[in-house]
Amino acid sequence: MDGPIGVTNEGARVRHGVRNGAHRGPTAGLAPGFVQGNLAVLPAAEAGDFLRFCHANPKPCPLLAVGEPGNPMLRALGDVDIRTDLPRYRIWRDGEVAEEVDDLRAVWRDDLVAFVLGCSFSFEEALIEAGLDLRHISCFGPGANVPMFRTSIACTPAGRFAGPMVVSMRPFRAADAIRAIQITTRFPGVHGAPVHLGDPSLIGIADVLRPDYGVPVPVERDELPVFWACGVTPQAVAAAAKVPFMITHVPSHMLVTDLRNASLAVL
Amino acid sequence: MDGPIGVTNEGARVRHGVRNGAHRGPTAGLAPGFVQGNLAVLPAAEAGDFLRFCHANPKPCPLLAVGEPGNPMLRALGDVDIRTDLPRYRIWRDGEVAEEVDDLRAVWRDDLVAFVLGCSFSFEEALIEAGLDLRHISCFGPGANVPMFRTSIACTPAGRFAGPMVVSMRPFRAADAIRAIQITTRFPGVHGAPVHLGDPSLIGIADVLRPDYGVPVPVERDELPVFWACGVTPQAVAAAAKVPFMITHVPSHMLVTDLRNASLAVL
């Protein structure tokens, strides 16, 4: 399954490397400028409710593309075959990870629907270009996972899909926090503006130095923690819904698309 | 000095009422939807430096219009005669208020240059339309003066004009603070986005409940104080520069223009 001859965009090149088995690791920092996405695959019987859930919760679940039932191709994102184009997958059964696999050829079914959701890598690139410091990267390197927290903010439920919003946190001094709000407002397709800043306890976070996922990073005395809705939310909610069968990417092993981050800016 | 026959816009109607002596009070709440402005009048010998100061400090000093030396008309803002169209004026000599007058006909000189600077009334209207609560208004009524503070933020100096930025403060819960940042970002011509939010001590404010100007308002435990650059800055700086002769409006007795607030939105 080689990529087409003469592909010139770096998103496609990286994706074809994944497809060919040449890359099996995390995708952070690969194909700079190109949109990466979170994957959720659900049986058609659950897909309607999940789609309604995404629509009702666009900040944690910004839907970039949804496939036809049974069709693993997502042309809106490039020559994407969802069965082969991510470095590593999780197969969930009854809300628990049953196994991790390198491709979905053996498990694909004609009732499966693929969802690709926006990822904060896109807006982080814009923040970095604006000269802002991303603490998790400056502390732990370009492949670091941002600190993430389950909150007391309830998502709007849809069918069996319900649960708390997960947020990512990046600390900034006030002037940079204001700039970060302005920049991420331009990117509603990849979580958009923050959902909170300042006192973490107001959204149910007991200790901002102890994230539920990702690395812990310091928040200095002259900084505000700034919280964005996070793409882990739909996965956590879908798992909590205990659907009999679901597929996701392994965290930080994302789908690299042909879309450019800059094309997601609404202004 | 009647206004032209058949004037239909409310900004002009209010301004003509001021011109005719029918209105001598504060202008807050008058001519909703129309831009109001701060006035500074300086001799041509000081005007160049003051103009450079405004250019270097666009957040506290957003310049809406500047007149030709000796010409009191500012056509860019309507049929504005700066000598008669504000309800009340202050004459400053050597950095101190020497007197207050109802019009400038007796003191106008052929070397004077009029500056009109944007005012937060314009963006406050947009905040109110978005359903946000402005504490100084909800506590003290529509004519209340927002709390204002001298800060440790230094303006960029130009010639003799130098000094600290003055800010206005409005408390909001985080989600409303984020919305307020988005809304005011659209209005760079009337102070634009905030310059700070959160810990007041980081910008040299010892007690956020004790403003240097305006009314004190409470900041609740679940709120952040949000600070915008304030139109009092240029007046305070010009006074500190001890120019021999200067004219300003009396606080809250603004110039009402023909411009619409909505026309100042950059997007």
Please provide a written account of the structure:
Two copies of one chain form a homodimer. Chain A has six helices and 13 strands. The first copy, chain A, has a domain of 113 residues: PSTPO5379-like fold. The mean pLDDT of chain A is 94. Chain A is globular. The first copy, chain A, is an alpha+beta fold. In chain A, strands 1, 2, 5, 6, 7, 12 and 13 form a seven-stranded antiparallel sheet that branches. The longest helix of chain A has 13 residues. Chains A and B meet through helix 5 and strand 10 of A and helix 5 and strand 10 of B.
In short:
With 267 residues, chain A is of the alpha+beta class. Chain A has a domain at 121-233: PSTPO5379-like fold (2-Layer Sandwich), CATH 3.30.2040.10. In chain A, 22% of the residues lie in helices and 27% in strands.
User: In one word, what is the shape of chain A?
Assistant: globular
Oligomer: homodimer
CATH superfamily (homologous) name of the domain at 121-233 in chain A: PSTPO5379-like domain
Q: What's the total count of β strands of chain A?
A: 13
Helix content of chain A: 10-25%
> What fold name goes in the CATH topology slot of the domain at 121-233 in chain A?
PSTPO5379-like fold
Strand content of chain A: 25-35%
